[in-house]
């Protein structure tokens, strides 16, 4: 099975188009090497997917015939990402969520930086 189709089938990506684009933009590795979407996978291969700021790693346990439900993913895929990396990912996602709730969008403006400097002095 093609790697773009496999990552979509096991629900690493929401659509097959997103899976293909991720392969094209070097956000997917197979056994440590960047691959094109048409690269075929086999049982026992290691897939790494870039989820900023980490690489999530998975081991292929089996190859399904068609798209599977969320509950069945564990039969086909084993996550091998370290606990420290998963903790870092969770912290970044929490920070992004807090920024969204507070209305913070990216870099502060000059006025906001001046206000922060006044508070810090």
Describe the structure.
With 121 residues, this protein is α+β, with helices and mostly antiparallel strands. It has two domains: 1-81, Structural Genomics Hypothetical 15.5 Kd Protein In mrcA-pckA Intergenic Region, Chain A; 82-121. The protein is 42% helix and 17% strand. It has five helices and five strands; from the N terminus they run H-H-E-E-E-E-H-E-H-H. A five-stranded antiparallel sheet has the order 2-1-3-4-5. Strand 3 (46-51) and strand 4 (54-60) form a beta hairpin. Helix 1 crosses helix 2 (16-24). The N and C termini lie far apart (60 Å). The mean pLDDT is 94.
Topology:
Blueprint: H1 3-9, H2 16-24, E1 28-30, E2 33-34, E3 46-51, E4 54-60, H3 73-76, E5 77-79, H4 83-102, H5 110-120
Antiparallel strand pairs: 1-2, 1-3, 3-4, 4-5
Task: Provide the descriptors you would attach to this structure in a database record.
Structural Genomics Hypothetical 15.5 Kd Protein In mrcA-pckA Intergenic Region, Chain A, single chain, alpha+beta, five-stranded antiparallel beta sheet, 5 helices, 121 residues, 42% helix, 2 domains
End-to-end Cα distance = 60 Å
Low-confidence stretches are none
CATH overall fold name of the largest domain? Structural Genomics Hypothetical 15.5 Kd Protein In mrcA-pckA Intergenic Region, Chain A
User: Taking all residues together, what is the mean pLDDT?
Assistant: 94
Largest sheet: 5 strands, antiparallel
Cross-sheet strand order for the largest sheet = 2-1-3-4-5
Name given to the CATH homologous superfamily of the largest domain: RNA-binding S4 domain
Q: Tell me the number of strands.
A: 5
The level 1 CATH classification of the largest domain is Alpha Beta
Radius of gyration equals 19 Å
Instruction: Give the SSE order as H and E letters.
Output: HHEEEEHEHH
Number of contiguous helices: 5
State the secondary-structure class: alpha+beta
Tally of individual domains: 2
β-strand percent reads 15-25%
In percent, how helical is the residue content? 40-55%
In CATH, the architecture of the largest domain is Roll
Form type: elongated
